[in-house]
Specification:
Number of strands: 11
Mean pLDDT: 70
Strand order of the largest sheet: 5-9-8-11-10
Number of helices: 6
Helix content: 25-40%
Low-confidence stretches: 119-133, 242-246, 275-290
Structural class: alpha+beta
Order of helices and strands: EEEEHEEEHEEEEHHHH
């Protein structure tokens, strides 16, 4: 349920802090021409529409202040998002965007109202200039008038925030390529762990060979298996190097594989057989996860 604000000042005619000028005629035109049925001035955060809107301007009027300056006042219909910010003390000030020649009428029109954090006493900023070729100017409210609203309950505000954000949660959580890749990588890791265990058993058997008690595996075939395992580990490391977190158990697998290579070489030396020359990458392989 939207809430309407009291009248509050959004612009003052005359020189601005940054040397520009809000013409008195613009203020008169905006008060005269503003019609929500013709073109509604929405409320945006810092003049950017991609945040979504925070309500709309329902009415404007022109009145002179105590110094004789013509000022533009507005009433707004705020949604719960704006009330949430307002209650937290955020985006308390306003800024206007005015088009000098609206729809070729020759009169100025209030295009939208922005909520900002910067007190207008710090100056005004010209943030953008054109929409469809029309000149538009943005001025901050110099007097720093805060917007006052009726209150929503915290429960109502939270419900609205949850409702608005639910679409984005579904959008980004429904299909997660990173999660799918992560699951696939864990499966590959388990497969490599199984292969590693089998090779470790063969190395242990080779290391424990005494006479004719056991028949050691074929050295060339065993060496080929180690090289294949090394290649698979390298592939796994490259595919997952882009992730910021390491796969659980990968460091241990790397350490065990290095030991496996060393034990295999030592076992062959003990058996009087020189280690076969590697056909793949260097035996001194360093695995890094990026």
């Amino acid at each position: 349920m939207a809430k309407n604000s009291k009248w509050f000042k959004v612009a003052t005619s005359g020189p601005t802090v940054d040397g520009r000028e809000i013409k008195e005629q613009w203020v008169k035109d905006m008060a005269e021409t503003y019609d929500p049925a013709e073109y509604t001035a929405n409320i945006f955060q810092d003049h950017w529409s991609w945040y979504g809107n925070y309500g709309r301007v329902t009415a404007v009027k022109a009145e002179k202040d105590g110094k004789g300056r013509l000022c533009l006042f507005a009433k707004v219909e705020a949604n719960k998002l704006l009330l949430k910010l307002n209650k937290a003390g955020q985006k308390l000030f306003t800024s206007i965007r005015v088009i000098e020649d609206f729809a070729k009428t020759g009169k100025a029109y209030l295009m939208h109202l922005a909520i900002t954090d910067e007190p207008a006493s710090l100056g005004t900023e010209q943030l953008s200039f054109s929409v469809n070729g029309e000149t538009s100017l943005i001025f901050a409210n110099q007097d720093g008038t805060e917007i006052e609203f009726d209150q929503f309950s915290d429960e109502e505000i939270e419900a609205e925030l949850i409702k608005r954000s639910s679409f984005f949660k579904r959008l980004f959580s429904k299909h997660s390529p990173e999660q799918e890749n992560d699951d696939m990588s864990k499966a590959d890791l388990e497969k490599l762990q199984t292969q590693f265990t089998q090779l470790s058993e063969q190395v242990a058997a080779l290391s424990g060979t005494k006479g004719d008690e056991e028949t050691p595996p074929d050295n060339a075939e065993f060496s080929q298996q180690i090289e294949e395992l090394q290649g698979q580990i390298e592939t796994l490391q490259k595919e997952n190097g882009e992730y910021k977190t390491k796969l659980e158990g990968f460091d241990q697998l790397q350490e065990n594989f290095t030991k496996l290579q060393s034990d295999f070489s030592e076992a062959l030396k003990d058996a009087g057989t020189p280690p076969p020359a590697s056909k793949g990458a260097s035996q001194d392989t360093d695995f890094d996860i990026f």
